[in-house]
Design brief:
Blueprint lengths: L7 E7 L8 E7 L6 H11 L3 E7 L7 E7 L4 E2 L3 H14 L5 E6 L2 E9 L5 E6 L4 E4 L2 H11 L13 E4 L3 E7 L2 H5 L5 H10 L4 E9 L2 E8 L4 E4 L3 H14 L6 E7 L7 E8 L2 E12 L3
Parallel strand pairs: 2-3, 4-6, 11-12, 13-15
Antiparallel strand pairs: 1-2, 1-17, 3-4, 4-5, 6-7, 7-8, 8-17, 9-10, 10-11, 12-13, 13-14, 15-16, 16-17
Helix pairs in contact: 2-6
Length: 289
């Protein structure tokens, strides 16, 4: 039995109102972060795609926390769904500080939490400064080869790119939902390719409508074949769409993810005219047991 003392370990499902949906995250809260090796051990034993570890930051200011994220295999610089889960968990412990600042390895991420009429808490994270670059053709070719997809199956209006909003993601958009539905790949070769290019996930998307998208995210570097909800990739995708001029601030769009896994997730992404950063919102609920 896992004993994370002196911290407290919580389990939440993010980007869903149903504990059986969304993306499960571990949230460890303590006075001081454990050594890296201990955090890695706990994350591996929890077995979720990510576990966030939080402790009050050195400033001692209310609402400011140091956070590190670990998959079962390795530390990652930023994780959106574990951030959403952390925000809900922290405010659940202390409702007097609904505005939080999480100090990640790559910068500060503000998180706010509101409670709707249905009583469900919704957390909103604001990413670090994003960037978008053209994807190297060799990376695209090799990824398509591993997926068994053809170049002409990609959406020409949404060209391949590498996008960052706390972590790097290769963005590949397809023209048809059927292509997205047959996502499969050899695990170890794709993991090696992602490590070679510093990718956290591969963001595979299909445009369902002007303000709605479907997504699937291979997460081989974290030891997970597919992620049912990826807030970091959603933030990066928001920066990508703004970079292309496909969405103009101030605007909001929706991403549905995890459907093929039986864990449907709903992510709301917002960009505003006076801030380059991207906001991602979602609910989170406790996982029983």
């Amino acid at each position: 039995m896992l004993d994370p003392t002196p911290g407290t370990l919580l389990r939440l499902a993010a980007f869903t109102a149903d504990p059986a949906g969304g993306n499960p995250a571990g949230v460890w809260i303590g006075d001081v972060l454990p050594p890296a090796g201990e955090m890695q051990r706990i994350a591996a034993e929890v077995g979720y795609s990510e576990t966030a570890f939080l402790a009050p930051d050195a400033s001692g200011e209310a609402g400011r926390w140091r956070v590190r994220y670990f998959s079962p295999l390795a530390e990652v610089p930023f994780c959106g769904h574990a951030t959403i889960a952390s925000g809900v968990a922290l405010v659940g412990r202390d409702a007097t500080t609904p505005a939080l600042v999480l100090a990640t390895n790559d910068g500060e991420v503000p998180v706010s939490v509101t409670v709707g009429r249905d009583g469900l808490p919704t957390a909103t994270l604001t990413s670090v400064e994003p960037w978008v670059r053209d994807a190297p053709p060799m990376l695209v070719d090799r990824t398509l080869g591993y997926l068994g997809w053809r170049l002409d199956e990609l959406d020409p209006a949404l060209p391949p790119a590498v996008a960052f909003a706390g972590a790097r993601h290769l963005v590949l958009a397809v023209q048809d939902l059927e292509t997205l539905g047959r996502m499969a790949y050899p695990f170890e070769p794709v993991k090696a390719l992602m490590l070679e290019h510093g990718l956290t996930t591969i963001q595979l998307v299909w445009r369902e409508g002007p303000r709605s998208f479907r997504a699937r995210d291979p997460f081989a570097v974290g030891g997970v074949v597919e992620d049912p909800a990826t807030g970091a990739a959603a933030a990066a995708f928001g920066a990508y769409l703004r970079h292309l001029g496909e969405i103009e601030p101030t605007a909001t769009f929706e991403i549905t993810q995890g459907v093929e896994m039986g864990r449907p997730s709903h992510l709301t992404v917002s960009i505003v005219s006076d801030d380059a950063r991207v906001r991602v919102s979602g609910t989170a609920v406790a996982i029983p047991g």
